[in-house]
Amino acid sequence: MKARPHLLLLLALATIAGCSGSGHSSAPMSSPSGTTAQRGALIDNPPTKVATYAPSDLLQLLSGSDVGKVFLQIAYTPKCTITVYHLTYDTSDPKGNITPASGALMVPSSTSDSSCTGGRPIVVYAHGTTTNKAFNLADLSVADSGEAVILAVVFAAEGYIVVAPNYLGYDNSTLSYHPYLIAAQQSKEMIDAVTAARAALPTADAPSSTDGGKLFVTGYSEGGYVAMATHSAMQASGMTVTASAPMSGPYALSAFGDAIFEGEVSASATENVALLAPAYQNVYGNIWSNPADIFASPYDTTVPTLLPNTAGLGTLRSEGKFPSVLFSSTPPAPNYAIYTPATTPANLASIFASGFGTDYLITNSYRAAYLEDALMHPDGGFPTLTDGLPPASPGNGLRVDLKTNDLRNWSPTAPTLLCGGNSDPTVFFFNTTLMQNYWTAHAPATAPVILDIDSAPGSNDPYATLKTEFSVAKGIIAAQGGEAEVLAAYHGTLVPPFCLSAVKSFFDAH
Fold first, then answer.
1. Which pLDDT does position 150 carry in this prediction?
2. What is the pTM of this model?
Protein backbone atom coordinates (compact mmCIF):
# COMPACT_ATOMS: atom_id res chain seq x y z
CA MET A 1 0.00 0.00 0.00
CA LYS A 2 1.14 3.53 -0.63
CA ALA A 3 1.43 6.02 2.22
CA ARG A 4 0.66 9.51 0.96
CA PRO A 5 0.81 11.98 3.88
CA HIS A 6 1.83 15.61 3.77
CA LEU A 7 3.46 16.81 6.97
CA LEU A 8 1.43 20.01 7.26
CA LEU A 9 -1.79 18.12 6.66
CA LEU A 10 -0.84 15.57 9.28
CA LEU A 11 -0.02 18.28 11.81
CA ALA A 12 -3.37 19.88 11.07
CA LEU A 13 -5.14 16.59 11.59
CA ALA A 14 -3.13 16.10 14.76
CA THR A 15 -4.52 19.30 16.21
CA ILE A 16 -8.04 18.16 15.36
CA ALA A 17 -7.43 14.76 16.92
CA GLY A 18 -6.33 16.40 20.16
CA CYS A 19 -9.84 17.80 20.66
CA SER A 20 -12.81 15.97 22.13
CA GLY A 21 -15.94 15.96 20.04
CA SER A 22 -19.10 17.24 21.65
CA GLY A 23 -22.54 18.41 20.78
CA HIS A 24 -26.02 19.08 22.03
CA SER A 25 -28.02 16.46 23.86
CA SER A 26 -31.22 15.31 22.18
CA ALA A 27 -34.36 14.38 24.06
CA PRO A 28 -34.87 10.66 24.56
CA MET A 29 -36.74 9.13 21.64
CA SER A 30 -38.99 6.13 21.22
CA SER A 31 -39.50 3.88 18.23
CA PRO A 32 -42.03 5.04 15.63
CA SER A 33 -45.68 4.38 16.41
CA GLY A 34 -46.70 0.88 15.56
CA THR A 35 -43.12 -0.35 15.32
CA THR A 36 -41.83 -3.03 17.65
CA ALA A 37 -38.60 -1.83 19.23
CA GLN A 38 -35.70 -4.10 18.36
CA ARG A 39 -31.96 -3.87 18.09
CA GLY A 40 -30.81 -1.92 15.05
CA ALA A 41 -34.24 -0.45 14.30
CA LEU A 42 -34.29 3.19 13.26
CA ILE A 43 -36.03 5.53 15.70
CA ASP A 44 -36.17 8.51 13.34
CA ASN A 45 -36.81 7.08 9.90
CA PRO A 46 -35.51 8.73 7.82
CA PRO A 47 -32.71 10.03 10.06
CA THR A 48 -32.72 13.75 10.83
CA LYS A 49 -30.48 15.70 8.48
CA VAL A 50 -28.13 17.92 10.46
CA ALA A 51 -26.30 19.65 7.61
CA THR A 52 -25.02 19.26 4.08
CA TYR A 53 -21.51 20.42 3.32
CA ALA A 54 -20.52 20.95 -0.28
CA PRO A 55 -16.76 21.09 -0.84
CA SER A 56 -16.94 24.88 -0.64
CA ASP A 57 -18.95 24.64 2.59
CA LEU A 58 -16.34 22.37 4.13
CA LEU A 59 -13.69 24.92 3.24
CA GLN A 60 -15.79 27.57 4.96
CA LEU A 61 -16.15 25.32 8.00
CA LEU A 62 -12.38 24.91 8.09
CA SER A 63 -11.77 28.66 7.78
CA GLY A 64 -13.45 29.24 11.13
CA SER A 65 -10.60 27.71 13.12
CA ASP A 66 -6.83 27.91 13.29
CA VAL A 67 -6.48 24.29 12.28
CA GLY A 68 -8.79 24.86 9.34
CA LYS A 69 -6.56 27.69 8.17
CA VAL A 70 -3.69 25.19 7.98
CA PHE A 71 -5.80 23.10 5.61
CA LEU A 72 -6.42 26.17 3.50
CA GLN A 73 -2.71 27.02 3.40
CA ILE A 74 -1.95 23.68 1.78
CA ALA A 75 -4.81 24.05 -0.71
CA TYR A 76 -6.84 21.22 0.75
CA THR A 77 -9.84 20.52 -1.49
CA PRO A 78 -12.53 18.04 -0.46
CA LYS A 79 -13.81 15.82 -3.26
CA CYS A 80 -17.31 15.01 -2.10
CA THR A 81 -20.31 16.81 -0.77
CA ILE A 82 -21.17 15.42 2.69
CA THR A 83 -24.62 15.10 4.19
CA VAL A 84 -24.53 14.50 7.93
CA TYR A 85 -27.44 12.84 9.70
CA HIS A 86 -28.22 12.35 13.37
CA LEU A 87 -28.70 8.57 13.38
CA THR A 88 -31.04 7.43 16.16
CA TYR A 89 -31.69 3.74 16.68
CA ASP A 90 -32.53 1.07 19.18
CA THR A 91 -29.92 -1.07 20.85
CA SER A 92 -29.97 -2.99 24.11
CA ASP A 93 -28.28 -2.12 27.36
CA PRO A 94 -26.17 -4.56 29.41
CA LYS A 95 -29.34 -5.88 31.10
CA GLY A 96 -30.94 -6.68 27.74
CA ASN A 97 -33.42 -3.79 27.76
CA ILE A 98 -34.10 -2.04 24.45
CA THR A 99 -32.82 1.54 24.76
CA PRO A 100 -32.19 4.50 22.45
CA ALA A 101 -28.77 5.26 21.02
CA SER A 102 -27.42 7.72 18.51
CA GLY A 103 -24.51 8.57 16.28
CA ALA A 104 -23.48 10.22 13.05
CA LEU A 105 -24.19 9.01 9.54
CA MET A 106 -22.10 10.84 6.94
CA VAL A 107 -22.97 10.20 3.30
CA PRO A 108 -20.86 11.46 0.37
CA SER A 109 -22.29 12.59 -2.94
CA SER A 110 -21.26 14.50 -6.05
CA THR A 111 -22.61 15.57 -9.41
CA SER A 112 -19.20 15.31 -11.04
CA ASP A 113 -16.96 12.84 -9.17
CA SER A 114 -17.89 9.17 -9.59
CA SER A 115 -15.81 8.19 -6.54
CA CYS A 116 -18.39 9.95 -4.37
CA THR A 117 -21.45 8.07 -5.62
CA GLY A 118 -22.63 4.58 -6.42
CA GLY A 119 -21.84 1.64 -4.19
CA ARG A 120 -19.70 3.14 -1.44
CA PRO A 121 -17.69 1.38 1.30
CA ILE A 122 -18.87 1.86 4.87
CA VAL A 123 -16.47 2.80 7.68
CA VAL A 124 -17.81 2.26 11.19
CA TYR A 125 -15.75 4.36 13.57
CA ALA A 126 -15.45 4.07 17.36
CA HIS A 127 -14.51 7.28 19.14
CA GLY A 128 -12.08 7.90 21.97
CA THR A 129 -12.81 8.42 25.66
CA THR A 130 -14.79 11.51 26.58
CA THR A 131 -16.37 12.55 29.85
CA ASN A 132 -18.82 14.90 28.07
CA LYS A 133 -22.35 13.53 28.38
CA ALA A 134 -23.56 15.76 25.52
CA PHE A 135 -21.09 14.19 23.09
CA ASN A 136 -22.59 13.99 19.59
CA LEU A 137 -20.52 13.20 16.52
CA ALA A 138 -23.35 14.34 14.24
CA ASP A 139 -22.77 18.01 15.08
CA LEU A 140 -19.78 19.39 13.15
CA SER A 141 -20.59 23.00 13.99
CA VAL A 142 -19.63 23.15 17.65
CA ALA A 143 -16.25 24.51 18.64
CA ASP A 144 -14.79 21.21 19.86
CA SER A 145 -16.21 18.89 17.19
CA GLY A 146 -12.71 17.77 16.21
CA GLU A 147 -13.27 14.04 16.02
CA ALA A 148 -16.34 14.52 13.82
CA VAL A 149 -14.46 16.87 11.51
CA ILE A 150 -11.57 14.46 11.11
CA LEU A 151 -14.02 11.72 10.09
CA ALA A 152 -15.66 14.05 7.60
CA VAL A 153 -12.49 15.21 5.88
CA VAL A 154 -10.52 11.97 5.93
CA PHE A 155 -13.24 9.44 5.13
CA ALA A 156 -16.58 10.96 4.09
CA ALA A 157 -15.09 13.64 1.83
CA GLU A 158 -13.07 10.86 0.17
CA GLY A 159 -16.09 8.73 -0.72
CA TYR A 160 -16.65 6.55 2.34
CA ILE A 161 -20.01 6.33 4.11
CA VAL A 162 -19.22 6.94 7.79
CA VAL A 163 -21.17 5.41 10.69
CA ALA A 164 -19.99 6.72 14.06
CA PRO A 165 -21.94 5.76 17.21
CA ASN A 166 -21.95 8.08 20.21
CA TYR A 167 -22.18 5.07 22.65
CA LEU A 168 -24.70 4.53 25.42
CA GLY A 169 -24.45 7.12 28.16
CA TYR A 170 -24.08 10.00 25.69
CA ASP A 171 -26.31 12.33 23.66
CA ASN A 172 -29.89 10.91 23.52
CA SER A 173 -29.10 7.85 25.65
CA THR A 174 -31.21 7.39 28.78
CA LEU A 175 -28.68 5.03 30.40
CA SER A 176 -27.27 6.61 33.56
CA TYR A 177 -23.69 5.45 32.93
CA HIS A 178 -21.41 4.57 30.04
CA PRO A 179 -20.59 0.82 29.66
CA TYR A 180 -16.91 1.65 29.35
CA LEU A 181 -14.54 -0.99 27.93
CA ILE A 182 -17.15 -3.74 28.01
CA ALA A 183 -16.51 -5.73 24.84
CA ALA A 184 -19.85 -7.50 24.43
CA GLN A 185 -21.88 -4.37 25.08
CA GLN A 186 -19.92 -1.85 23.01
CA SER A 187 -19.56 -4.18 20.04
CA LYS A 188 -23.34 -4.74 20.15
CA GLU A 189 -23.91 -0.99 19.93
CA MET A 190 -21.56 -0.74 16.94
CA ILE A 191 -23.28 -3.61 15.12
CA ASP A 192 -26.71 -2.09 15.77
CA ALA A 193 -25.50 1.26 14.40
CA VAL A 194 -24.40 -0.44 11.17
CA THR A 195 -27.77 -2.21 10.89
CA ALA A 196 -29.61 1.09 11.37
CA ALA A 197 -27.37 2.94 8.90
CA ARG A 198 -27.87 0.30 6.23
CA ALA A 199 -31.64 0.56 6.74
CA ALA A 200 -31.39 4.33 6.23
CA LEU A 201 -29.49 4.05 2.94
CA PRO A 202 -29.85 5.44 0.38
CA THR A 203 -30.91 8.80 1.77
CA ALA A 204 -33.10 11.35 0.01
CA ASP A 205 -30.27 13.89 -0.10
CA ALA A 206 -27.78 11.41 -1.58
CA PRO A 207 -29.91 8.88 -3.45
CA SER A 208 -27.04 7.75 -5.69
CA SER A 209 -24.77 6.79 -2.80
CA THR A 210 -25.56 3.28 -1.68
CA ASP A 211 -24.09 0.54 0.47
CA GLY A 212 -21.40 -1.03 -1.72
CA GLY A 213 -21.04 -4.10 0.50
CA LYS A 214 -17.60 -3.35 1.92
CA LEU A 215 -17.44 -2.83 5.68
CA PHE A 216 -14.39 -1.41 7.45
CA VAL A 217 -13.99 -1.07 11.22
CA THR A 218 -11.68 1.38 12.95
CA GLY A 219 -11.38 3.57 16.04
CA TYR A 220 -8.85 5.26 18.29
CA SER A 221 -7.97 4.82 21.99
CA GLU A 222 -11.17 3.59 23.68
CA GLY A 223 -12.40 3.36 20.12
CA GLY A 224 -9.42 1.19 19.17
CA TYR A 225 -10.53 -1.28 21.83
CA VAL A 226 -14.16 -1.05 20.67
CA ALA A 227 -13.13 -1.51 17.03
CA MET A 228 -11.26 -4.72 17.84
CA ALA A 229 -14.10 -6.02 20.02
CA THR A 230 -16.52 -5.21 17.19
CA HIS A 231 -14.45 -7.04 14.57
CA SER A 232 -14.32 -10.05 16.88
CA ALA A 233 -18.09 -9.97 17.50
CA MET A 234 -18.92 -9.47 13.82
CA GLN A 235 -16.66 -12.36 12.87
CA ALA A 236 -18.25 -14.62 15.49
CA SER A 237 -21.76 -13.77 14.24
CA GLY A 238 -20.92 -14.39 10.59
CA MET A 239 -20.92 -10.75 9.45
CA THR A 240 -18.48 -9.91 6.68
CA VAL A 241 -15.71 -7.51 7.68
CA THR A 242 -13.61 -6.32 4.75
CA ALA A 243 -10.76 -5.12 6.98
CA SER A 244 -10.25 -3.52 10.37
CA ALA A 245 -7.70 -1.13 11.84
CA PRO A 246 -7.85 -0.56 15.59
CA MET A 247 -5.56 2.27 16.74
CA SER A 248 -3.83 2.69 20.14
CA GLY A 249 -6.41 0.70 22.08
CA PRO A 250 -6.19 -0.95 25.53
CA TYR A 251 -6.71 -4.44 24.09
CA ALA A 252 -4.82 -6.33 26.82
CA LEU A 253 -6.98 -4.90 29.59
CA SER A 254 -5.80 -7.23 32.32
CA ALA A 255 -2.14 -6.41 31.75
CA PHE A 256 -2.94 -2.71 31.39
CA GLY A 257 -4.85 -2.64 34.67
CA ASP A 258 -2.02 -4.43 36.46
CA ALA A 259 0.51 -1.94 35.08
CA ILE A 260 -1.51 0.99 36.39
CA PHE A 261 -2.03 -0.51 39.85
CA GLU A 262 1.64 -1.49 40.03
CA GLY A 263 2.62 2.15 39.65
CA GLU A 264 2.77 2.73 35.90
CA VAL A 265 -0.10 5.19 36.10
CA SER A 266 -1.10 6.24 32.59
CA ALA A 267 -1.74 9.87 31.70
CA SER A 268 -5.55 9.65 31.82
CA ALA A 269 -5.87 6.87 34.40
CA THR A 270 -7.92 8.86 36.93
CA GLU A 271 -10.79 9.58 34.55
CA ASN A 272 -10.45 6.13 32.97
CA VAL A 273 -10.88 4.37 36.31
CA ALA A 274 -13.68 6.76 37.28
CA LEU A 275 -15.56 5.58 34.17
CA LEU A 276 -14.47 1.94 34.38
CA ALA A 277 -15.20 0.97 38.00
CA PRO A 278 -18.83 2.24 38.01
CA ALA A 279 -19.44 0.62 34.62
CA TYR A 280 -18.21 -2.75 35.86
CA GLN A 281 -20.17 -2.37 39.10
CA ASN A 282 -23.35 -1.66 37.13
CA VAL A 283 -22.82 -4.61 34.80
CA TYR A 284 -21.12 -7.23 37.00
CA GLY A 285 -21.87 -6.03 40.55
CA ASN A 286 -18.54 -7.23 41.95
CA ILE A 287 -16.44 -4.07 42.42
CA TRP A 288 -17.82 -2.91 45.77
CA SER A 289 -20.37 -3.59 48.46
CA ASN A 290 -20.08 0.07 49.33
CA PRO A 291 -18.32 2.66 47.12
CA ALA A 292 -16.04 3.44 50.07
CA ASP A 293 -14.54 -0.02 49.51
CA ILE A 294 -12.67 1.40 46.52
CA PHE A 295 -13.07 5.21 46.42
CA ALA A 296 -11.48 7.54 48.97
CA SER A 297 -13.61 10.10 50.76
CA PRO A 298 -15.26 12.34 49.60
CA TYR A 299 -15.21 10.75 46.14
CA ASP A 300 -17.04 7.63 47.29
CA THR A 301 -20.18 9.80 47.35
CA THR A 302 -19.65 11.53 44.00
CA VAL A 303 -17.69 9.41 41.51
CA PRO A 304 -20.00 6.34 41.32
CA THR A 305 -22.60 8.38 39.40
CA LEU A 306 -20.49 11.31 38.16
CA LEU A 307 -19.34 10.42 34.65
CA PRO A 308 -20.14 11.13 31.93
CA ASN A 309 -21.20 14.66 32.83
CA THR A 310 -22.06 17.88 31.02
CA ALA A 311 -19.59 19.71 33.27
CA GLY A 312 -15.89 19.49 32.47
CA LEU A 313 -13.41 17.75 34.76
CA GLY A 314 -11.93 21.09 35.76
CA THR A 315 -15.31 22.25 36.97
CA LEU A 316 -15.97 18.97 38.77
CA ARG A 317 -12.60 19.26 40.53
CA SER A 318 -13.30 22.84 41.57
CA GLU A 319 -16.60 21.65 43.04
CA GLY A 320 -14.82 18.95 45.06
CA LYS A 321 -16.45 16.11 43.13
CA PHE A 322 -13.44 14.74 41.24
CA PRO A 323 -9.87 14.10 42.44
CA SER A 324 -6.55 15.27 41.05
CA VAL A 325 -4.76 11.91 40.99
CA LEU A 326 -5.47 8.19 41.07
CA PHE A 327 -3.38 6.94 44.03
CA SER A 328 -2.00 8.12 47.34
CA SER A 329 1.67 9.06 47.36
CA THR A 330 1.95 7.02 50.57
CA PRO A 331 2.47 3.32 49.71
CA PRO A 332 -0.20 0.87 50.92
CA ALA A 333 2.54 -1.00 52.78
CA PRO A 334 6.37 -0.85 52.93
CA ASN A 335 6.72 -3.80 50.54
CA TYR A 336 4.72 -1.89 47.92
CA ALA A 337 6.91 1.21 48.03
CA ILE A 338 8.63 0.21 44.78
CA TYR A 339 5.27 0.66 43.02
CA THR A 340 4.63 4.20 44.32
CA PRO A 341 5.30 5.34 41.66
CA ALA A 342 7.09 3.06 39.23
CA THR A 343 10.32 4.53 37.83
CA THR A 344 10.80 2.39 34.73
CA PRO A 345 10.63 2.80 31.83
CA ALA A 346 12.49 6.01 32.54
CA ASN A 347 10.97 8.00 29.67
CA LEU A 348 7.53 7.68 31.27
CA ALA A 349 8.57 8.09 34.92
CA SER A 350 7.29 11.67 35.06
CA ILE A 351 3.88 10.53 33.79
CA PHE A 352 3.73 7.77 36.40
CA ALA A 353 4.66 10.19 39.18
CA SER A 354 1.85 12.57 38.21
CA GLY A 355 -0.67 9.86 39.10
CA PHE A 356 0.20 10.05 42.81
CA GLY A 357 -0.59 12.72 45.39
CA THR A 358 -2.75 13.65 48.35
CA ASP A 359 -6.04 14.25 46.53
CA TYR A 360 -6.54 10.70 45.28
CA LEU A 361 -9.38 8.48 44.06
CA ILE A 362 -8.46 4.89 45.05
CA THR A 363 -8.03 3.91 48.69
CA ASN A 364 -4.75 2.34 49.76
CA SER A 365 -6.58 -0.67 51.15
CA TYR A 366 -8.17 -1.39 47.76
CA ARG A 367 -4.90 -0.87 45.93
CA ALA A 368 -3.17 -3.26 48.35
CA ALA A 369 -5.82 -5.93 47.75
CA TYR A 370 -5.47 -5.53 43.98
CA LEU A 371 -1.67 -5.74 44.18
CA GLU A 372 -1.83 -8.85 46.35
CA ASP A 373 -4.05 -10.56 43.80
CA ALA A 374 -1.84 -9.45 40.90
CA LEU A 375 1.30 -10.80 42.58
CA MET A 376 -0.42 -14.08 43.45
CA HIS A 377 -2.09 -14.49 40.03
CA PRO A 378 0.10 -12.55 37.59
CA ASP A 379 -0.86 -11.65 34.07
CA GLY A 380 1.21 -13.55 31.51
CA GLY A 381 2.09 -10.32 29.71
CA PHE A 382 2.95 -7.96 32.58
CA PRO A 383 5.25 -7.31 34.35
CA THR A 384 7.04 -10.36 32.91
CA LEU A 385 6.21 -11.86 29.56
CA THR A 386 5.50 -15.57 30.07
CA ASP A 387 2.60 -17.11 28.16
CA GLY A 388 1.26 -13.66 27.21
CA LEU A 389 -2.23 -14.53 28.46
CA PRO A 390 -4.51 -12.98 31.10
CA PRO A 391 -4.26 -14.52 34.58
CA ALA A 392 -5.86 -17.95 34.88
CA SER A 393 -7.78 -17.36 38.10
CA PRO A 394 -7.79 -13.79 39.44
CA GLY A 395 -9.74 -13.24 42.63
CA ASN A 396 -10.10 -9.46 42.84
CA GLY A 397 -13.39 -8.34 41.28
CA LEU A 398 -11.86 -5.65 39.08
CA ARG A 399 -9.19 -8.09 37.82
CA VAL A 400 -11.91 -10.68 37.10
CA ASP A 401 -13.80 -8.12 34.99
CA LEU A 402 -10.66 -6.93 33.21
CA LYS A 403 -9.95 -10.54 32.22
CA THR A 404 -13.55 -10.94 31.01
CA ASN A 405 -13.07 -8.00 28.67
CA ASP A 406 -9.47 -8.67 27.66
CA LEU A 407 -9.21 -9.21 23.90
CA ARG A 408 -6.43 -11.80 23.96
CA ASN A 409 -9.00 -14.43 23.02
CA TRP A 410 -9.56 -14.29 19.25
CA SER A 411 -7.79 -14.14 15.88
CA PRO A 412 -9.08 -12.16 12.88
CA THR A 413 -9.90 -13.80 9.57
CA ALA A 414 -10.06 -10.48 7.69
CA PRO A 415 -7.04 -8.20 7.03
CA THR A 416 -6.17 -6.26 10.17
CA LEU A 417 -3.86 -3.35 10.92
CA LEU A 418 -2.87 -2.30 14.43
CA CYS A 419 -1.28 1.13 14.69
CA GLY A 420 0.19 3.00 17.66
CA GLY A 421 3.35 4.56 19.02
CA ASN A 422 5.88 2.91 21.33
CA SER A 423 6.13 5.83 23.79
CA ASP A 424 2.42 6.36 24.32
CA PRO A 425 1.91 7.54 27.92
CA THR A 426 -1.88 7.13 27.84
CA VAL A 427 -2.43 3.68 26.32
CA PHE A 428 0.81 1.77 26.64
CA PHE A 429 2.08 0.22 23.42
CA PHE A 430 2.44 -3.18 25.05
CA ASN A 431 -1.30 -3.53 24.44
CA THR A 432 -0.41 -3.78 20.75
CA THR A 433 2.63 -6.02 21.19
CA LEU A 434 0.71 -8.41 23.44
CA MET A 435 -1.95 -8.77 20.74
CA GLN A 436 0.85 -9.37 18.25
CA ASN A 437 2.28 -12.08 20.53
CA TYR A 438 -1.14 -13.68 20.89
CA TRP A 439 -1.67 -13.72 17.14
CA THR A 440 1.78 -15.19 16.61
CA ALA A 441 0.74 -18.11 18.82
CA HIS A 442 -2.79 -18.26 17.37
CA ALA A 443 -1.97 -17.42 13.78
CA PRO A 444 -4.74 -15.88 11.65
CA ALA A 445 -5.05 -16.88 8.01
CA THR A 446 -3.96 -13.36 7.05
CA ALA A 447 -1.11 -12.04 9.17
CA PRO A 448 -2.08 -8.76 10.85
CA VAL A 449 0.02 -5.68 10.10
CA ILE A 450 1.57 -4.21 13.25
CA LEU A 451 2.64 -0.59 12.79
CA ASP A 452 4.71 1.22 15.40
CA ILE A 453 4.57 4.72 13.95
CA ASP A 454 7.37 5.80 16.31
CA SER A 455 9.89 3.22 15.04
CA ALA A 456 12.72 3.68 12.58
CA PRO A 457 11.84 3.03 8.92
CA GLY A 458 13.01 -0.32 7.59
CA SER A 459 14.10 -1.31 4.12
CA ASN A 460 11.15 -1.55 1.70
CA ASP A 461 8.96 -0.20 4.49
CA PRO A 462 5.56 0.87 3.10
CA TYR A 463 5.20 3.21 6.05
CA ALA A 464 8.67 4.76 5.84
CA THR A 465 7.36 8.17 4.84
CA LEU A 466 4.84 8.21 7.68
CA LYS A 467 7.48 7.21 10.22
CA THR A 468 9.91 9.84 8.96
CA GLU A 469 7.30 12.59 9.08
CA PHE A 470 6.19 11.46 12.55
CA SER A 471 9.79 11.87 13.68
CA VAL A 472 9.91 15.34 12.15
CA ALA A 473 6.64 16.35 13.82
CA LYS A 474 7.85 15.03 17.17
CA GLY A 475 11.07 16.99 16.73
CA ILE A 476 9.16 20.21 16.09
CA ILE A 477 7.17 19.78 19.29
CA ALA A 478 10.31 18.86 21.26
CA ALA A 479 12.08 21.98 19.99
CA GLN A 480 9.20 24.12 21.19
CA GLY A 481 8.52 22.55 24.58
CA GLY A 482 10.94 19.72 25.27
CA GLU A 483 10.19 16.08 26.00
CA ALA A 484 7.44 16.99 28.46
CA GLU A 485 5.54 18.65 25.63
CA VAL A 486 6.04 15.60 23.42
CA LEU A 487 4.53 13.36 26.10
CA ALA A 488 1.63 15.76 26.59
CA ALA A 489 0.90 15.74 22.86
CA TYR A 490 1.70 12.10 22.14
CA HIS A 491 -1.60 10.22 22.46
CA GLY A 492 -4.09 12.94 21.61
CA THR A 493 -2.17 15.02 19.09
CA LEU A 494 0.85 13.26 17.61
CA VAL A 495 -0.14 9.67 16.94
CA PRO A 496 -3.75 9.90 15.63
CA PRO A 497 -3.18 11.60 12.27
CA PHE A 498 -0.27 9.39 11.30
CA CYS A 499 -2.12 6.21 12.25
CA LEU A 500 -5.25 7.50 10.53
CA SER A 501 -3.30 8.11 7.34
CA ALA A 502 -2.04 4.53 7.49
CA VAL A 503 -5.59 3.28 8.10
CA LYS A 504 -6.95 5.19 5.11
CA SER A 505 -4.26 3.71 2.85
CA PHE A 506 -4.89 0.24 4.29
CA PHE A 507 -8.62 0.47 3.65
CA ASP A 508 -8.10 1.92 0.16
CA ALA A 509 -6.01 -1.15 -0.69
CA HIS A 510 -8.87 -3.49 0.25
1. 81
2. 0.93
